[in-house]
From TrEMBL:
It holds the Pfam family FLYWCH. InterPro entries: Znf_FLYWCH. Keywords: Metal-binding, Zinc, Zinc-finger. This is FLYWCH-type domain-containing protein. GO terms for molecular function: zinc ion binding. Residues 5-60 form the FLYWCH-type domain.
Amino acid sequence: MFSIVESKRKKPVLLFDTFRYTQDKIVGTTIYWKCEDRSCPGRAVQYGSAAPNLKKSHNHNGDENKCKAEEFKIAVKRRIEHSPQPVKRIYKQELTSLYTTSPQIAPSIPMFHEIKNSLYKTRNDSYPPAPHTVDDVKIEGIWRKTLHDSVKQLSTSFNDHWFMDGTFKSCPHPFYQLYTIHSVNNDLSTPELYTLLPDKNGSTYTHIQFYDYVTKGWHFRLNNDLNHINHPHFYVFIRAIQNDYAHNAATLSRHLATGTLPPRKKLYVNRNARLLNLEDRYQAHTLTLEEYFDKVSRLVGVKKF
Ligand SMILES: [Zn+2]
């Protein structure tokens, strides 16, 4: 087991077999590490990114707990950088998981109040300041990209159904509404497009809204990722959307390979079948558009549209 962390002075530190090393020199792709204790002859060598080898033994014992505590802090910080979840919650989850696997390390782990300044600094450093007005919005760098640095079309079939939906709660300031377009293919609903609207747009409030139930699970997941905060920080929201994309891509790839679907409430499955039936009737011109809308909205329990 080894990991490379950062010292307070931002220098790389190797944690290897309960010892701490600082970088001695780099020759080509070979990294030479020396024991952090200057009076110790302990040395390790690392070829490329492979696991290091001990070259010269130490004249003292290692400190396993100190190394583990450091690895813990790095793991928490990595998650703070990549997850929009609250800092304290991430700390708690990591602490619980550490205690489950290695309870003997717990006494060496700093308490939240002892490292919270450094953790909040990590959080602040990982998100740019939120824009105040729509004109301030200038999304740069990693914030423009999805996980794989591409805008990949998730939809794979011409038989997809498309649903549009708006939500206010998880929409970040200074926007008014988060508007999403989801494709539904074989009962798997996948968001395809996220749009932030600056103000109330009349046309989004037409008969389309009654498809809300299709996207309920998605709303719940997004709100949960955002810790049910109303109008989250703009970049925390973007991070949640990036994570959402990764989650959906993973679910969809599993679905396409095996046909597996996440379980859905029976109510929704039944409704979906009846919705499709209404749509078939509309396509076959046995229902007028007005009748179609009327039946659909009654089906999903919306009185007015
Ligand atoms: Zn040493």
